[in-house]
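Budget justification aside, the reviewers requested a transparent look at the raw inputs and outputs of the sequence design task funded under Objective 1. We therefore reproduce one unedited record. The lines immediately below are the structure tokens for a 194-residue chain.
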């Protein structure tokens, strides 16, 4: 698993292998069981995450108890928590493991110390966040401009493994439709490709 982290450090920094290993040695790489909540809606975030293996679902509950899935994080994706340093900041969503997962778990309070010691680490984090933000913007633009069927077809192209990895009702929520609508769309698409 450390090879994945070294790949990212090499991609975004010029840290030497010895420095990379020192950083990796300070990270907490943890196996987390399916169904574990990493963060609950309403809690104050204190950790950040990087998925080495597995799938994490981000969702929120409205006042009526309806779940809305806003993202799935899979291999080599960072789960960014913004505004964690503001007082009385509460999470607007829950993060739950959809699969048994292996995560790098960072303590937000220790982050600054590591950035001071390894300034390229802060640069790497910024570049990763910029990349993730760009993807989020593209995903949002796609979501609002496409029909439900086009959204499903887009997922088949951009993130095909999600279809097998997450329950249909969660995928439907992520795509902004009911499970029944998703089922009809899947049937239509499968009939056309058969």
């Amino acid at each position: 698993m450390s090879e994945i982290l070294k790949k990212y450090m090499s991609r975004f920094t010029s840290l030497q292998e010895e420095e990379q290993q020192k950083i990796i040695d300070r990270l907490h790489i943890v196996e987390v069981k399916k169904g574990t909540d990493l963060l609950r809606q309403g809690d104050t975030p204190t950790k950040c995450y990087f998925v080495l293996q597995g799938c994490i679902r981000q969702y929120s509950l409205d006042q009526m108890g309806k779940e809305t899935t806003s993202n799935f994080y899979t291999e080599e994706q960072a789960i960014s928590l913004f505004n964690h340093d503001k007082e009385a900041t509460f999470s607007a969503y829950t993060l739950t493991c959809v699969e048994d997962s292996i995560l790098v778990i960072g303590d937000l309070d220790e982050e600054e110390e590591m950035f001071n010691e390894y300034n390229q680490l802060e640069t790497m984090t910024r570049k990763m966040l910029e990349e993730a933000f760009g993807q989020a913007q593209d995903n949002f633009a796609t979501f609002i401009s496409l029909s439900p069927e086009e959204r499903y077809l887009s997922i088949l192209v951009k993130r095909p493994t999600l279809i097998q990895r997450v329950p249909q009702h969660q995928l439907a929520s992520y795509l902004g439709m009911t499970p029944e609508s998703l089922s009809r769309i899947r049937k239509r698409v499968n009939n056309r490709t058969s």
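The radius of gyration is 18 Å. The mean pLDDT is 87. Computational costs for records of this kind are itemized in the attached budget.
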